[in-house]
Amino acid sequence: MVSDGIERLGFLIHDVQRHMRKRFDARASAFGLSAAQWRLMVRAAKEEGITQARLAELLEIEPISVSRLVDRMEEGGWVERRADPSDRRVRTVYPTPRAREAYASVKSMAGDVYEEALAGLSRDQRRTLIVCLDKIVENLGDGETSSCDMAKKTESVTA
């Protein structure tokens, strides 16, 4: 049987994500935040006023864990909670100026990690990779909006 390597797809995607996360974590450690805290902060910076319930969904952790994580980040001056104006029971999360500043540094650092990861790939190969990964997300996402779609919307608004 001739294999085109497709049976390795899941392992490769996982390995790429793991290597990129390790490289990013090593560079971002100067800020003193855990990987979970970084992920929460990035989500709060990209979606100011995000609810804790939505954070739990996006981060794939239990709501109580998000609450504790936000507690620690609020104590550290990274985020602040506010009551939702339309529903007092709902708490929304906003980045502080300190978090926005760190996020700007991290975006630059992430770009460096991406360049390192994509070294040796042509511009066309890079585009093809992104198009293919977007399609995989679309195929498996059950109608969810992907992080890439949200990033594209953010880029078009800020451009």
Automatic annotation (TrEMBL):
Tell me which UniProt keywords the record has, alphabetically: DNA-binding, Transcription, Transcription regulation
Q: Which domain of life is it from?
A: Bacteria
Q: Which residues form the HTH marR-type domain?
A: 6-138
**Protein name, per record:** MarR family transcriptional regulator
Name the source organism: Ollibium composti
